[in-house]
Design a protein that fits this description.
The structure is a homodimer. Chain A is α/β, with parallel strands linked by helices. Chain A is built from 14 helices and eleven strands.
Chain lengths: 334, 334
């Protein structure tokens, strides 16, 4: 359904971790390259889509965040702690925030349609039925990220084309949209495959050909890898982030909501420890509140206040080139 | 190394869930049947080993708990809550406990050697080096349960023969021995396989031939299944426990320490909810403290106060016969 040579998808990772030219190269290599629109303005996304189109005729995807906007709460207590971190990093303390509304999801969808993006995926929520119709009318393939069978059924009922089943092992943000316990990929994939009649992408903890083969045997049609693509020479992840992955143990990549207000898996550091006992405002508010801290930490090489996302299959991953990663993940299909 | 026809192990489950004659039948069918010695006296274990020996010449295992005995603490607050549950079940309240010491692990090991048990496995801890030597001198194959690569390395350094890698998905007790985060099986198996040069058993979330094949492709030499063997006509699990598994969703099987003081995965119920915000005394103290409640709940058909252990691969499992389960799990090898 994706019209790609190998059933391998580069996980979309917000923050420009995989630049558009690298995403295009991944697509040219027969996998599905991805642009993560999370955090990008319409103009920035337009530019990235243009770059990918200029560099490949192969399919690629744009990933959109379809999150709700709950009321911000519990801001004051957490901000007190964030200000102690700001003082430590020597950046201005902040006493109040203006949570400006992001551009509506529909604008991003319209842009994708305008620029003939072949595949659009959603995380953190479901698109509305009218957005689904709009995308389908334009011939766009729609993927939706789920963490449970119940979420998969909701995506199926909405008319989504492909479901991305993300397991507990996955690095970065938990992409589903209900406040549910996480399911290990070994248990999640067969239950999703049995429950819906759509193609399924297995995501989380897959880092080499063994994981790819195992996921396919569990019934997945595609696999998605994040950490392996992040820890490459070509990714723009901070060098200290890559070094942390190369050095870490599987027990170091923990769930936290300290950076964004949403559960995400990253390598344990002081930021996670300092905030672990406080009530964290929900996404996207916490994400906005920590933006200056994450930026300053990167500038100052302070790995303890950066979000060093990683999945649990971490021991095998020295920093490599994208082509090595692709060769490994597609080995079973060549 | 286990001299079994199919690389399939019936997970040991304490409480006599799989009676010794059924364990023998599992061994006769070419898998590894198991006696769970946890909670059994020496005399009871002796009798169960006798039954298995009388019914099979094929290999079987005895599983032993090798847990520490930390100081009991936080007894009073939790006991207050347990007494409200006792009143509800109409059983006597308890004001103080005598935590009598269990018979030493060495006595169980000696019994296994005396009765020529072919395989002895350990959970909740490592055997001492002298117990390892004793078992090896007697020709016994030793398996050790681990939840992380670090634990696997400790088992390897001790001279254990086979490592049981138990993933986050597994039902019942987390069998490792450090206070570590859980690792999804998809990430755990390849990392353990790469780190040690011993045979590896994959455990957790495997419920059909797809899971078996996937685990073998990840590098496991054997697989272990628990929930599937528990939810059979032949198991002595409470009928309401089996019904709960047959009815549950994958999101219902949660981690709790409410029943035993150790992390275990079971179907969410009132007991788990009522105690979730209290400090729980460590194993084995909490296990001893809840014994009367668990027994009364079973007698009274009160599923809300029973420990309904289950793994995360739960949707596929109607109650079946053991022979159906074995046919499914061994399908790839026939």
């Amino acid at each position: 359904m994706l019209n790609i040579k190998y059933p391998v998808i580069q996980a979309p990772m917000a923050g420009g971790i995989i630049p558009p030219d690298v995403a295009a190269a991944i697509s040219n290599a027969g996998c599905l390259g991805s642009i993560a629109a999370g955090g990008l303005s319409i103009t920035e996304l337009e530019s990235q889509i243009g770059t990918v189109h200029a560099l490949t005729r192969s399919p690629f995807q744009v990933n959109l965040f379809a999150n709700d906007y709950p009321e911000p709460y519990a801001i004051a207590a957490i901000n007190k702690e964030l200000n102690t971190i700001r003082q430590r990093l020597g950046i201005p303390v902040i006493e109040s925030y203006s949570f400006t509304t992001a551009e509506p999801l529909e604008s991003y969808v319209d842009l994708c349609i305008q620029y003939k993006v072949p595949v659009v995926s959603f995380t953190f929520g479901c698109p509305t039925p009218s957005l689904v119709d709009k995308l389908h009318d334009a011939g766009v393939t729609i993927m939706g990220t789920i963490s449970t069978v119940g979420e998969a059924l909701r995506m199926r009922n909405l008319g989504i084309d492909i479901v991305i089943a993300q397991g507990y092992e996955a690095g970065g943000h938990k992409g589903g949209f209900t406040d549910s316990p996480s399911i290990g990929l070994m248990a999640l994939v067969p239950q999703v495959v049995d429950a819906i009649d759509l193609p399924v992408v297995a995501a989380g903890g897959i880092s080499d050909r063994r994981g790819v083969q195992a996921a396919i045997l569990l019934g997945a049609d595609y696999i998605q890898a994040g950490t392996r693509f992040l820890n490459t020479f070509e990714s723009t992840a901070h060098p200290l982030h890559k070094a942390a992955i190369s050095r870490a143990y599987e027990t170091d990549a923990l769930y936290t909501s300290a950076f964004s207000g949403k559960t995400a898996r990253g390598i344990r550091n002081q930021m996670m420890d300092k905030l672990s006992h406080l009530e964290i405002p929900p996404y996207p508010y916490m994400n906005i509140m920590t933006k200056d801290i994450r930026a300053a930490a990167k500038n100052q090489q302070q790995v303890d206040f950066m979000s060093n996302w990683s999945g649990q299959n971490i021991r095998s991953s020295e920093t490599q080139s994208i082509s090595c990663v692709i060769a490994e993940l597609t080995a079973s299909f060549r």
